[in-house]
Amino acid sequence: MASAVTMAAYTIPQSKALRTSSALFAKSSVVGMPMMRRGSGRLSVRCDFIGSSTNLIMVASTSLMLFAGRFGLAPSANRKATAGLKLELRDSGLQTGDPAGFTLADTLACGTVGHIIGVGVVLGLKNVGAI
């Protein structure tokens, strides 16, 4: 008898907020959500041809960064930068088949930095109105 009383006292309350009922959903969406217009924003996305200015900027910035990392003009896993911004050779212990020691981590890092630079250039030129 005592266990039945303690079980009744510790029941877990059920929430109706997690249930997906069409009546509940229709009420909350009509009352709570404002109506949004599409296409009224200032920033738009276009699918241009492969030689568009945005595409050329992204390809050029990523290619230049990969070139700089591969030929020793940027820091990499096997070339660290000193305080005077000079590059020193070091053994990182990473396995690579490239004669220059360019690793997968270097490819991903240089590609990422190239994309960041490209996005900055594209957004800056769009802000100025040149694109």
Quick overview of this protein structure:
This protein has 131 residues and is mainly α. The protein has helices at 2-9, 22-32, 53-70, 104-128; strands at residues 79-81, 87-89.
Order of helices and strands: HHHEEH
Q: Could you give a short account of the major beta sheet? A: 2 strands, antiparallel
SS element count, helices:
4
Secondary-structure-based class equals mainly alpha
Strand content: under 5%
Average of pLDDT: 75
Oligomer state of the chains in this structure: single chain
* Gyration radius, rounded: 28 Å
Low-confidence segments: 23-30
Description:
This protein has a two-stranded antiparallel ribbon. It is mainly α and 131 residues long. It has helices spanning 2-9, 22-32, 53-70, 104-128, and strands at residues 79-81, 87-89. Helices cover 47% and strands 5% of the residues. Helix 3 packs antiparallel against helix 4. The protein is flat, with a radius of gyration of 28 Å. It contains four helices and two strands. The protein starts with a helix and ends with a helix. A hairpin with a 5-residue loop joins strand 1 and strand 2.
